[in-house]
Design a protein that fits this description.
Pfam families: GGDEF_2, HTH_18. With about 750 residues, the protein is an alpha+beta fold. Helix content is about 60%, strand content about 15%.
Length: about 750
């Protein structure tokens, strides 16, 4: 029996052992193949690493050279600099002032590229050199302020003043500039857009020291060399004792050249720029390139492979599980951000339309303007309408012309950064210009508007190819009056079309039209919105304005005055219906009064009374709701003031209102800020507990909603002038003396 059990145990032991032995044998058999393959992979990885570093240097330098090329192009096409090409006598007449003015203009160019040592303008006709700080004759400049150590003055003159003017890069050379020694790469860029007729050039001095820093980050000069060559293989900058390689050896954009006689036994890595065709060449000793390969050879493969298999399996499981969650979160985040980006233009258009219609009132205005990325601190606001009528009658051509004209107008708007001008398309052929001036007066805003209108109406008719109407509303200081200005601009535009007045038409210059009353839709919308908000002050101002324009400034017939009152009665009926006010005969009495009154101006006072009654009812409703809301908020604070995380956002969320409205509502109803109210409540509770409760100061701090004893003590001392401990001791001493 015992022998049978022992045989059974031995049998299972062997059955479990054999698979491990089999896999071990297989691992040992494959280890030789894996070993060789690992060496190849590590070697390739090292080469790729060096190629990656070389590509980083290439990308960095390509970016800097692109910035330099862009700056050179901007300078080369500056009109003030171009007009100096034809000057032959720079110091005669007004030429001197032109040269000095152009020199001052060089300071406006943004030279933040640390690779640029300096730049200058060479003029061939006048043989002058213009720099941001100096103006030289060429002969005085070379040798006195600037010279190449390896270039004579005659060779310098031939290169920059006599030979063909073209884009040119001179290799790194030592120079003396402004009394200091430098090593620079010189970049010559012809002025203007046609090099063959250019009589000047922009010369950029590129600091070769910055280029050498990049190259030294790749290799130690004692262990190898590196250089940068142009698309013909001419070396621009280098470190170490380099060997110039034939460009034919370096095929493709990137690659390697194994150690050989042409490379002096060095392993060469190269990359070619797709921007300018330059070669970036790095040569290193094979011992350095394959250092990791030699290290791998010294590692025992058996033990490493075992742990590697376990680690890879665990890493794969954990990473796969976690990465799926992270990937889902990132996908959701990017999708949400992309959707918000797509919706931003629609939201912007919607808000501007509401502004123009007068549908935004009260404190909502500031929030809306912030969502539009507008400065809410507006000192002057106005609206204007630009109407294009193309001469083309074919619909397809007409639409193309309108698209071109809209682009032309938006390009003009970019020239006025001092005042924010927002263009809003209300139709294919109409664009509303919204002027928003911050920290400027209405007069300055008016001057800006006039300058823009002059620029628009001054467009060459050959370029315009359309009838142009520009209508301007009045300028106001309150952002809420933008709808009023827009309504005035529409009236001015209608008058311009009626009279066929092309160009600019200002609302303030319109003649008094006695055959129409003033009650535009924008004013009606604002009036009803303010009434529904209970804003009696704004309602009174709007009614005063309507009365002033219709009964004092205009000589309207009685029939037109009565028509105005009928329309305002209709507005009152709509307001009452929307507010669900109890039905009454006030509006009917108003209509009856209008029909019977000898002077409709007297009946207008009844309109004032009805609007005042509506505002009073709305305010009473608000106060009733406000009392209930305030009691609920106080109850929430009383229940949770011991929670250290309690803040304004948390209470506003529980009360179901926005943070901004909660802050203004609480201050309006209680007379104190939320934070002060919460702190006073906590301090009142703390004083009671310090007098009556046996708890420690730390326990009292936690019960009162402070996260630490230090913050509680600082707050207590700031309010009461003494620390909690001294307060408790003084109270107890006073109680003891009373008992004695």
């Amino acid at each position: 029996m015992k022998s049978n059990r022992r045989f059974g145990r031995d049998n299972w032991f062997m059955r479990l052992l054999l698979p491990y032995a089999f896999f071990l044998a297989m691992a040992l058999t494959a280890s030789g193949l894996i070993y060789e393959r690992t060496l190849d992979l590590v070697g390739e990885e090292e080469r790729n690493t060096h190629l990656h570093l070389l590509n980083q240097v290439k990308s960095t330098l390509d970016g800097r050279l692109a910035e330099i090329d862009t700056l050179a192009m901007q300078v080369a096409n500056d009109p003030r600099l171009l007009q100096l090409q034809q000057i032959k006598e720079p110091f005669e007449g007004t030429n001197t002032f032109k040269m000095l003015a152009a020199q001052k203009g060089l300071y406006h160019f943004d030279v933040t590229n640390k690779f640029i040592l300096d730049y200058m303008i060479y003029y061939r006709n006048s043989e002058t050199v213009l720099t941001p700080s100096t103006l030289y004759l060429a002969d005085a400049f070379y040798g006195f302020a600037f010279d190449y150590e390896d270039m004579t003055q005659e060779r310098w003159r031939r290169t920059f003043f006599e030979e063909e003017n073209r884009k040119l890069v001179l290799p790194a050379m030592p120079v003396r500039y402004k009394g200091k020694a430098h090593s620079v790469v010189t970049y010559n860029y012809p002025l203007g857009t046609i090099p063959s007729v250019s009589r000047g050039s922009v010369v950029m001095l590129i600091d070769n020291g910055q280029i050498l820093k990049l190259l030294r980050s790749l290799v130690d000069e004692k262990e190898g060399w590196a250089y940068i060559a142009d698309n013909r293989g001419n070396v621009i900058s280098s470190i170490g004792d380099y060997v110039r390689l034939d460009p034919e050896l370096m095929g493709g954009r990137t690659g390697w050249v194994s150690e050989s006689a042409p490379t002096r036994g060095m392993h060469v890595t190269y990359a070619r720029s797709s921007e300018n065709g330059w070669y970036y060449v790095l040569a290193q000793s094979p011992r350095i390139v394959l250092a990791k390969v030699h290290y791998v050879k010294r590692i025992t493969l058996g033990t490493t492979l075992g742990f590697l298999a376990v680690g890879l399996a665990l890493a794969y499981v954990f990473t796969s599980r976690n990465s799926r969650t992270v990937a889902r979160m990132l996908d959701s985040h990017y999708a949400l951000r992309e959707e918000m980006r797509k919706q931003e233009p629609i939201l912007r258009t919607s808000i501007i339309e509401r502004l123009l219609k007068g549908e935004i009132v009260g404190g909502e205005m500031e929030g809306m303007m912030k969502r539009l990325r507008m400065n809410p601190r507006i000192s002057a606001i106005a609206a204007a309408i630009v109407h294009f009528i193309p001469t083309e009658n074919v619909e397809e051509k007409r639409l193309k012309e309108l698209a071109r004209l809209r682009i032309l107008l938006r390009e003009l708007l970019r020239e006025w950064p001092a005042v924010a001008i927002h263009g809003h398309e209300t139709a294919e052929d109409k664009i509303v210009l919204l002027f928003l001036a911050s920290d400027t007066s209405e007069e300055e805003c008016a001057r800006t508007m006039e300058a823009l209108f002059d620029r628009i109406t001054g467009i060459d008719p050959a370029e315009l190819r359309a009838d142009l109407y520009v209508a301007s509303g009045g300028i106001y200081s309150a952002p809420i009056d933008v709808s009023r200005s827009y309504g005035e601009a529409k009236q001015a535009l209608n008058y311009a079309h009626w009279r066929q007045l092309r160009g600019l038409t200002r609302f303030g210059e319109l003649p008094d039209l006695s055959d129409s009353h003033y009650y535009p839709g924008e004013i009606e919308t604002r009036l009803t919105n303010h009434a529904k908000a209970g804003d009696a002050g704004e309602v009174a101002l709007l009614l005063d304005d309507i009365y002033e324009r219709n009964f004092r400034k205009r000589n309207l017939p009685f029939a037109i005055q009565k028509l105005l009152l009928y329309e305002m009665a209709g507005s009152l009926m709509k307001v009452k219906e929307q507010l669900a006010l109890e039905p009454d005969d006030d509006v009917r009495r108003l209509l009856s009064t209008t029909d019977d009154a000898e002077s409709p101006a007297e009946a207008f006072q009844a309109v004032r009374g009805l609007y005042a009654d509506i505002c009073e009812r709305v305010v009473r409703r608000k106060k009733s709701r406000n009392v209930q809301l305030l009691e609920r908020i106080r109850g929430l604070i009383q229940e949770q003031y011991g929670n250290a995380d309690l803040n304004l956002d948390a209470v506003a969320d529980q009360a179901g209102i926005s943070r901004v409205y909660f802050s203004s509502f609480f201050k309006e109803q209680t007379g104190v800020n939320f934070s002060d109210y919460l702190e006073n409540l906590r301090m009142d509770s703390a004083r009671v507990m310090l007098r009556d409760a046996p708890a420690t100061v730390n326990e009292i701090a936690q019960r009162c909603g402070y996260g630490s004893t230090n913050s509680f003590s600082r707050a207590f001392k700031r309010i009461h002038g003494i620390s909690p401990t001294i307060y408790r001791e003084s109270f107890r001493q006073g109680a003891g003396e009373t008992q004695s």
